[in-house]
Design brief:
Layout: H1 15-42, H2 57-76, H3 79-107
């Protein structure tokens, strides 16, 4: 087989391989987080009761890793694909909003009898 040259995308600095590594690292971090969450959920009342922790440093670190992954993926895409992806995300958010509006309107009590005709019935 021929050796990959410097411009070859399958060479040692393959951006797809870098992306795969980052995705795997994020997957591993999410698995660790899920494992830890399940372990904590099985425990009894925490030592300080049900008080929420004052620091969210660990959650911030995980969120930062996800943001970094999204940024890395975005930077690898051509500009026209970035615009298409942004439009797709916008349309998905509009769809979700429409579904939520529809669902909420079905949960609200219907205004009954607004348009009903009222008629007196004589009692004899």
């Amino acid at each position: 087989m021929a050796e990959p040259h410097a411009g070859d995308p399958l060479g040692p600095d393959d951006p797809l391989e870098t992306l795969r590594d980052r995705i795997q690292a994020t997957h591993d971090a999410a698995a660790r987080l899920a494992e830890e969450t399940a372990r904590r959920a099985r425990q009894a009342v925490p030592p300080r009761g049900w008080e929420t922790p004052a620091s969210g440093a660990q959650a911030t670190g995980e969120l930062g890793a996800l943001v970094e992954l999204a940024s890395a993926v975005r930077s690898m895409l051509p500009e026209d694909i970035q615009h298409q992806l942004a439009e797709l995300v916008r349309q998905l958010l509009v769809l979700i909003r429409s579904l939520l509006d529809w669902w909420i309107s079905r949960l609200e009590p219907a205004a009954r009898g607004r348009d009903a005709e009222i008629e007196d019935i004589p009692i004899a």
